[in-house]
Design goal:
- It is elongated and about 90 Å long.
- It is an alpha/beta fold.
- It has a six-stranded mixed sheet. A five-stranded mixed sheet has the order 2-1-3-11-4, sandwiched between helices. A four-stranded antiparallel sheet has the order 13-14-12-15, covered by helices on one side.
- It is about 30% helix and about 25% strand.
- α2 crosses α3 and α3 crosses α5.
- β1, α1 and β2 form a beta-alpha-beta unit.
- It has three domains: about 110 residues, 3-Layer(aba) Sandwich (D-Maltodextrin-Binding Protein, domain 2); about 120 residues, Periplasmic binding protein-like II (D-Maltodextrin-Binding Protein, domain 2), CATH 3.40.190.10; about 80 residues, 2-Layer Sandwich (Alpha-Beta Plaits), CATH 3.30.70.120.
- The chain is built from ten helices and 15 strands.
Length: about 350
């Protein structure tokens, strides 16, 4: 047996807390990787799959850890991975070629630019032009200063301003500016809205789900930078280690199976032989099987098993069961699925 191990960056916070809706603990268990200690704040381990090593951390840090090969796989927000990639780019002149494998389908947020409504009656670019014309230096606050800077650089270019106005200084809030032209971005740890509302800075980049906190502070969303969600990332360096690469693909395929199964159920039912053709035609017309339907044959009856999306609006589960019953299906049973893996090719890594 191989001694190779795969280190998994496990995010602390809501995803780890079964009471806050993240359900990553359950996803991992359904994938065949039950954890110990993760739901209690760590240290986390995988008791029945010791070839997996849990590394408890913050998604804010995983991009750097992947870049340095300290961890092999990470589960975290697309926004935080991008933030670390941009930090390495602007501060260390290094490229981090990380690979996003797929989304977990949860943790959706938007990164938006916020300002006081009275400051931006004509939009964000006239406001920035006015600030630059008057004092040459824009001030901004964000938990993600490098994403904020990437956005600002794009604005400078779009406005056709001199490249000198794209200078940046990322600083702690609220230290004296180190530059007199461009943008000072104060890195903050929350309450971005309050700093904008109180006029401490010109604009902010905020992370939001519904925008309710932004509205409560009387602020306006003047631009949307990107949408993010919880995703699975891998270090490309894994490809150079065949044993670890194989472990990574095994982990990713099984985790995909538990994600894919979240909205799916298995419907089993019986039908007389003379009714089978009509039922097969219904299953085919609604694309309810892959290569061919799964059928167990008896002398007089056939047993069908079909995987259905229980949240489909196109063909609701209740309607599918009713229509199958009209075609002669009996003993219709519905079983929740913990895992459903279409095949190895679902992993693009």
């Amino acid at each position: 047996m191989s001694d190779a191990t795969l280190t998994i960056g496990l995010p602390a916070g809501s995803l780890a807390d079964p009471n806050r809706g993240g359900s990553l603990v359950q996803l991992l268990a359904h994938a065949g990787f039950p954890t110990k200690g993760y739901d209690k704040g760590g240290p986390s381990s995988f008791p029945i799959t010791p070839f997996l090593v849990g590394w408890d951390g913050r998604p804010q840090e995983f991009g750097s850890q992947l870049a340095l090969d300290e961890i092999d796989i990470a589960i975290g927000g697309r926004d935080w991975i991008l933030e670390r990639q941009l930090e390495f780019k602007y501060e260390y002149d290094q490229d981090i070629p990380l690979e996003c494998i797929h989304s977990l389908g949860r943790g959706g947020v938007r990164l938006v630019i916020i300002a006081r409504p009275d400051d931006v009656p004509d939009g964000i670019q006239p406001y920035l032009r006015d600030i630059i014309a008057r004092r040459g230096l824009v001030t901004m606050v964000s938990e993600m200063p490098y994403i904020a800077y990437e956005w600002f650089r794009g604005q400078v270019e779009a406005m056709g301003l001199d490249a000198s106005y794209a200078k940046v200084s990322v600083q702690k809030f609220k230290t004296p500016p180190r530059i007199d032209r461009g943008i000072v971005i104060y890195e903050t740890w929350g309450k971005t809205e309050a700093k904008v509302t109180n006029g401490s800075v010109d604009i902010g980049l905020e992370i939001t789900q519904s925008g309710s906190a932004i509205r409560n502070y009387g602020l306006a969303i003047v631009d949307e930078v990107l949408e993010s969600e919880t995703t699975i990332w891998a270090s490309p360096a894994l490809r150079s280690d065949p044993e670890k690469y194989d472990l990574a693909r095994m982990f990713l395929m099984n985790l995909y199976g538990s994600i894919y199964a979240e909205d799916r159920v298995l419907v089993l039912f019986n039908a007389r032989r003379e009714e089978a053709d009509a039922i097969k035609a219904y299953l085919s017309s609604n694309r309810l099987f892959g290569d061919e339907p799964t059928i167990n044959e008896g002398p007089h009856y056939l047993e069908f098993s079909v995987s259905l999306n229980a949240t489909s609006r196109e063909l609701p589960l209740a309607r599918a069961r009713y229509e199958l019953a009209k075609l002669g299906a009996t003993a219709i049973e519905t079983i929740p699925l913990e895992s459903s893996i279409p095949g190895l090719d679902v992993i693009k890594f």
